[in-house]
Amino acid sequence: MFRERFSKRLLAALIGFYGAFTLWSALRFGLFVEMGADFRAFFAAASLTMSAGYAAVYDLSLQERAQRQVFASFLPPSADFLPAVVLPPFLLPFKLLLPLGPVAAFGVWTLAHLALMTFYLGHRLRALGSQRWVTAGLLALSFPAFNTLFWGQVNALLVIGIEGFLRARERGRKVEAGLWLGLLLVKPQMLLLLLPGLLIAGEGRILAGFAGASGAFAALSIALIGLEGMAAWIRLLAHYEGAMDPVGLGVSASTMINLRMLAIMLAHILPKPLTWAITGAAAGWLAAFTLGAFRRASRQRVIPAPGAPSFDPIYARSLLSLLAATCGITWHAHAHVAVVLLPPLLRLIAAGTFPQALAAAWWIAPPLAYVGGVLLRGSMMAHGYPWPIPDYGLPALSLLLTHTLMALWGTRILPARSGRSQRPQADVQP
User: Fold this and answer.
1) Phi first, then psi: what are they for 273, rounded to 5°?
2) Is 68 exposed, middle or buried (CB count within 10 Å of its CB: 0-12, 13-18, 19+)?
3) Residue 412 — φ and ψ, nearest 5°?
């Protein structure tokens, strides 16, 4: 990916930046106001299930009351309420952590998350030889992975699901590959393009496996909350995401990494109908472009050249493209969901085929944008000018731009030839 000396310097710089950011947040706000805020939502929801059952989680008034009770010693009265809206099976791990109390549970959850992501990516990391530990550090300190750990998210399941999907598909176990995709139901919006992509590529066995996993999650959910509870969950999702930029529910659409965020930013200078027209057209074009490339890549049978990586680099590239486009198009996408890119990205890094400039932008641009945004906000406000963009807004914009470039780069796929196997292009050889 990078030269060893540059990689070590970049890692040191990222440790310094994210370490300082974490220390500043802890000293200013303490725990669970910012750092661990999403964990707060999941932990409190799990606590509510103990006293009122799983169905009570999807009553926002009950969930808020439980959250403020469990975290009363950590939250000021002005702290935002952050609801948990996941399906009930995904709350089960948090129930196991309840006896530890909030602080110890958050520490265990963070370490477990880091260990799980490292373990499932370990096979590809070992292929990097002496660079594996530096690369592992860089992956952990990418903006999406750091935000997953900082906020206490559940996104290790996204990494495990996509990594398991790729491994099973590479071994020809397509039904198993679909079963692994069931883990993405923790963030179902990340399936927005992947499921249609599998459908148009004729991947019926993968879709059958996913249907089986979905059926299992649905059956377990119904067993826990009943059909009425499932209806309440659907109503909650509609309420949670019913507005362009809702406030008071911790949605913060203006800090997302998608075109929805761009529309909100553009609305400060352009009429809202025009912003929706621009971003809607961009979403449609990006979806069509990446889906077409994914279909072509899925239908090619690659014969590995001598010394080639033990995976299909064309498919990994097209999957990275599709998932990067999903981050930009889907309605709800904060920076932490982009950890879904790590499995295909690591494959391409190990093969030496991912552009260094694009990799550098993915790692460096968000921290620089954050610092620049804070300085610019301070300067503007000192001179009496309003600054409508939140601190996370510019880093989010930098990721939207970087992911769009990833999506476009990944669409450079060889056109399939009828009845012939394809070898990887020169630019996808290690």
Assistant:
1) -60, -35
2) middle
3) -80, 75
**How far is the CA of 106 from the CAs of 17, 39, 149, 151, 401, in angstroms?**
22, 7, 10, 10, 32
> Residue 394: CB partners within 8 Å, gap ≥ 6?
369, 370, 372, 373
- The DSSP string of 188-218 is GGGGTTHHHHHHHTT-HHHHHHHHHHHHHHH
Question: Which secondary structure element, helix H or strand E, spans residue 238, and what is its range?
Answer: helix 204-240
Work out the widest C-alpha separation in the chain, in whole angstroms: 67
CA 360 to chain CA mean position, Å? 19
Which residue do the tokens 């300082």 mark? 20
**Is 79 within 8 Å of 33 (Cβ atoms)?**
yes
pLDDT in tens for each of the 430 residues of the chain? Answer: 677 888 899 999 999 999 999 999 999 999 999 999 999 999 999 999 999 999 999 888 899 999 999 999 999 988 888 889 899 999 999 999 999 999 999 999 999 999 999 999 988 888 888 788 899 999 999 999 999 999 999 999 999 999 999 999 989 999 999 999 999 999 999 999 999 999 999 999 999 999 999 999 999 999 999 988 898 888 887 776 654 445 445 567 889 999 999 998 898 889 989 999 999 999 999 999 999 999 998 887 655 555 555 678 889 999 999 999 999 999 899 999 999 999 999 999 988 889 999 999 999 999 999 999 889 888 888 888 887 788 888 999 999 999 999 999 998 865 444 333 444 443 433 3
Q: Are 178 and 213 in contact (CB under 8 A)?
A: yes
Q: Determine the distance from the C-alpha atom of residue 124 to the mean position of all C-alpha atoms in its chain, rounded to a whole number.
A: 20
What does each C-alpha distance from 309 to 33, 37, 38, 134 come to in angstroms? 44, 40, 38, 21
| Burial class for 310, CB neighbours closer than 10 Å (0-12, 13-18, 19+) | exposed
Please report where in the chains the tokens 């890119």 appear, as a residue: 341
